[in-house]
Amino acid sequence: MTVGLTTLLLSAPMSASAADEVNIYSYRQPYLLEPLLEAFTTKTGIETNVVFAKSGLAERLEREGRNSPADVVMTVDISRLNELVERGLTAPLETDVLSEDIPEQYRHPEGKWYGLTTRARLIFASKERVERGEITTYEQLADDKWEGRICTRSGKHPYNIALISSMIAHHGEAETEEWLQGVKDNLARKPQGGDRDQIKAVAEGVCDLAIGNSYYYGNMLQDENQRPAAEAVNVVFPNADGRGAHVNISGMALTNSAPNRDNAIKFMEFLTTPEAQRIYAKVNFEYPVNPAVQPSELVASWGDLNADELSLQTIAENREAAVKMVDRVNYDN
């Protein structure tokens, strides 16, 4: 297995085709993929070659065109998957295995991308200052009682844009904009940092509520330096008694160039098997996209996730409206 560790390796050559290999471009960090890749090669004998980057993979695919050696792209967030589709870089793919293992809302209507794991956008509430059950929905984040008590990262971050996009789908633009203005009015400070920083801010008393992705909480619990902050909050699964919590995905797509198409399909189908789903979900505290596979023991201990069944494609289609809305309410300033 060959793993490119930095964006500098984006210029490194990768062979276009071989009988027993598959070439992967990945936005996901190498340590998250290595257990999966090893299991796949052990099971199939197909070697994996990986280029990792924090950005620029779509641009590289465009430059390489039909000569690209990439077979599969692996990434996080529906916006990045949709970007690949909009640029015409992914090929439609439908197989019985993928259709059976991945629920409809977590795959492109034409098979141009597939979800692999889900991560819920949760509310983290101070154990000291917020009673259990005091907040239960995203909509309540705009209530006046939370004025000066909420922390979030930038409204323009893809994870928040996806949440806002889901609100647009459920409530329409006018009502969602009123809600977003209400959330902004309730902020304890200017949006800053990442999701972990919001949980830390709750622990430090800067705010009482934070919005963040579920897997960050899991990662914090495994870090002895960050564990005290994570243990200072309760996990709230928003809208659990209604439509369910908004979820985003990590996912994969078959490239148009795919010189090792058959091996790529074998790899993609392997990633949806119970074996791979357990590995992938456990290593980063995410939820398996395959409904037949349960989350890890740690993730399950947080409570039951009732996931919103809204199509991720609908969320992608609302992205532009969500970005403009963040600007109109001047959320980050």
UniProtKB/TrEMBL annotation:
Q: Which UniProt keywords apply?
A: Iron, Metal-binding, Signal
Q: Which domain of life is it from?
A: Bacteria
As for family, the record states: Belongs to the bacterial solute-binding protein 1 family.
GO-annotated molecular function: metal ion binding
Coiled-coil ranges per the record? Answer: none
Annotated Gene Ontology cellular component terms: outer membrane-bounded periplasmic space
Please name the CDD domains in this protein's record. PBP2_FutA1_ilke
Q: Which InterPro entries match?
A: Ferric-bd, SBP
Task: Report whether Signal shows up as a keyword of the record.
Answer: yes
Record-given protein name:
Iron ABC transporter substrate-binding protein
Q: Which residues bind Fe cation?
A: Y215, Y216
Q: Tell me which positions the record assigns to the signal sequence.
A: 1-18
Which PANTHER family does the entry mention? Answer: IRON-UTILIZATION PERIPLASMIC PROTEIN, THIAMINE-BINDING PERIPLASMIC PROTEIN-RELATED
